[in-house]
UniProtKB/TrEMBL annotation:
Superkingdom of the organism of origin: Bacteria
Coiled coil region boundaries: none
Keyword S-adenosyl-L-methionine on entry: no
Protein name, per record: Membrane protein
UniProt keyword Cell inner membrane, yes or no: no
Transmembrane segments annotated in the record for this chain: 6-26, 70-86, 98-115, 135-159, 201-222, 234-253
Lineage: Bacteria, Pseudomonadati, Pseudomonadota, Alphaproteobacteria, Rhodobacterales
Keywords: Membrane, Transmembrane, Transmembrane helix
Length: 279
């Protein structure tokens, strides 16, 4: 009981820290912005505390099946922190921020090739964007996308090394860890898990290409000064890179769960092609 309470408090605090990083590290943040950020941080922290304090399922998936949410949080934290430090170079440069900015420019230029997600991210700017604004978006997009790719690789490696989900803490509880998935619905659970896994992986692959196209077609591009505003740029690029990565991770995890259930059926003597499974 005490460990669950302490864990919920720590997780809530870390979520609030991530949300507050840009406004805390970037100088010149207005009082209204700080108040809004504080309100969002408190709400998110309270939601996280309630989710992890209760024994019953809520909204957070894979709540009791580490390292899924831990890796996802690490990706989010690193993305927000790196982009914030890079943006700090433009207003209050330090040795660290200058170093991060230089590395970010190299990464952005390396990933900025025709038809790449980073190149397409610049399409969210309109035609009046300056070279400096294009460079800022390219740097942020390249850094965020690389962090997401590395985080995804670490996640897959951890799944292989730890034998997840069969070795998850206390066993894998579908009801707790997949609160929005109903295993009793029509159709075989393995087929549905594999279908959902393919859909999530497909969406994760297409989303970095799809979002800039929708923004460009639907609104003729954001105003450059709005998108390259420090906090707007940080959260826009974070969402653009983190959401597809999160979908990829969810798809991979659901595929692993389907494999676990299939293995359990084989151990129980229920083989593919039996009357228990649909043809």
């Amino acid at each position: 009981m005490f460990n669950r309470l302490l864990g919920a408090i720590v997780r809530a605090f870390l979520v609030m820290v991530v949300i507050a990083i840009p406004s805390a590290l970037l100088p010149g943040t207005g009082a209204d912005t700080k108040q809004m950020v504080a309100l969002v941080a408190l709400f998110s922290g309270a939601l996280t505390f309630v989710e992890y304090k209760t024994d019953y399922p809520g909204l957070v998936e894979f709540r009791d099946a580490p390292p899924f949410n831990r890796v996802r949080f690490a990706i989010l934290f690193l993305t927000v922190f790196m982009l914030t430090v890079i943006e700090k170079t433009h207003v209050a440069p330090t040795t660290l921020s200058t170093l991060f900015s230089a590395v970010g420019i190299v990464i952005g230029n390396a990933l900025d090739f025709p038809y790449s997600p980073v190149r397409l991210a610049t399409f969210m700017l309109n035609d009046s964007a300056t070279d400096a604004q294009l460079l800022a978006v390219t740097t942020a997009a390249g850094t965020a996308y690389l962090i997401s790719l590395l985080g995804l690789a670490v996640f897959v490696l951890l799944l292989k090394l730890r034998g997840w989900p069969s070795r998850a803490r206390g066993g894998f509880n579908v009801w707790i860890n997949l609160p929005t998935f109903d295993p009793t619905a029509n159709g075989d659970v393995i087929v549905r898990l594999e279908r959902d896994a393919r859909v999530n992986i497909g969406m994760g692959f297409l989303l970095p290409f799809f979002i800039p196209a929708v923004v460009n077609i639907g609104s003729s591009g954001f105003e450059p000064l709005a998108l390259t505003n420090s906090q707007t740029l940080i959260w826009t690029m974070t969402a653009w890179a983190f959401l597809p990565c999160s979908l990829f991770m969810r798809g991979i995890a659901m595929g692993k769960i389907a494999e676990m259930i299939r293995a359990e059926r084989r151990v129980s003597g229920i083989e593919d092609g039996s009357s228990y499974l649909p043809a």
